[in-house]
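Sanity check. The docking grid for zinc ion depends on where the pocket ends up, so I'm generating a full predicted complex first rather than guessing from homology. Inputs follow.
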Amino acid sequence: MEKQHTIGKSVSISGTGLHTGQNGTLTFHPAEINHGIKFRRVDLFGQPIVEAKVKNVVDTSRGTTIAQNGVKVYTVEHIMASLRGSGIDNVLIDLNCEEPPILDGSAKIMMAALKEAGIVEQDAERKCLKITRKITYTHPKVGCELTIEPADKFSIDVKVDYKSGVLNVQEAHMHDISEFETEFAPCRTFVFFQELEMLLAHNLIRGGDLSNAIVFIEKQVSEEDLKRVAGLFHKESVAVHEGGILNNVTLYFDNEPARHKLLDIVGDLTLLGMPVIGKVTAYKPGHFANTEFVKQIAKAMKVAM
Ligand SMILES: [Zn+2]
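Predicted complex below; grid placement will be based on this.
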């Protein structure tokens, strides 16, 4: 029988939000048994709470955004993944702006901070959702499919396919959540060069710099374009490396993008409100599909959202 866990002491992390460019601080506080995972917007009057539950998902266009009574918290997926990966059930997360810091684009820094705060066992049984039948979500237009079926452990198989010369079919497999910290948490978010220009033009990626996203370039890009992008990132110059990857990042794993997609699934699934036990298979996942999948699981398994 597993017990619930929280952290031993409060711990803070500061940095810039990827989309808003806001500089913010995230503080994890210990919380009592059955508290669950909740955000608190300490910059707003009354310090309103936003529960990290799938019913509160309001936008999935560039990340998973939640809101309660009109109070938003953007891009929660990497935080949620770091908590699940650390085995934390109960925590109160203070945030002094709308969007948590993107940090290095992965869950590594948050997991390290949580570890430093200490993972503490609590005197109550952990409630888990054990899947008892196969549940499938499909989005015919996007062609994505997510399935969960009964199993003794939480495992995930992911397959992505961007039909791109630089990023084609890629797979990642997590056999057990114990692999998460070393094999998946360090894997960074990624973006295609063409998307990047669009995001920059629409002011949607203001906090980005060339260390918190892997950038894939599909076609020949002119020196002029590279210079312009370098300028937008406040860098003197950028270059295209082998394999169509921009800038100064070196991949940690050949399949780092697929591993990051797996990280995102772990994060989005945590919005279920309790750890899920079952075997997940995902083809072309994304935040919209992931969160719809979570709603479907909740409905099928009669979990209160
Ligand atoms: Zn992500």
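Relevant for the grid: Residues 190-246 form one domain.
Also worth noting: The first strand starts at residue 3 and ends at 7.
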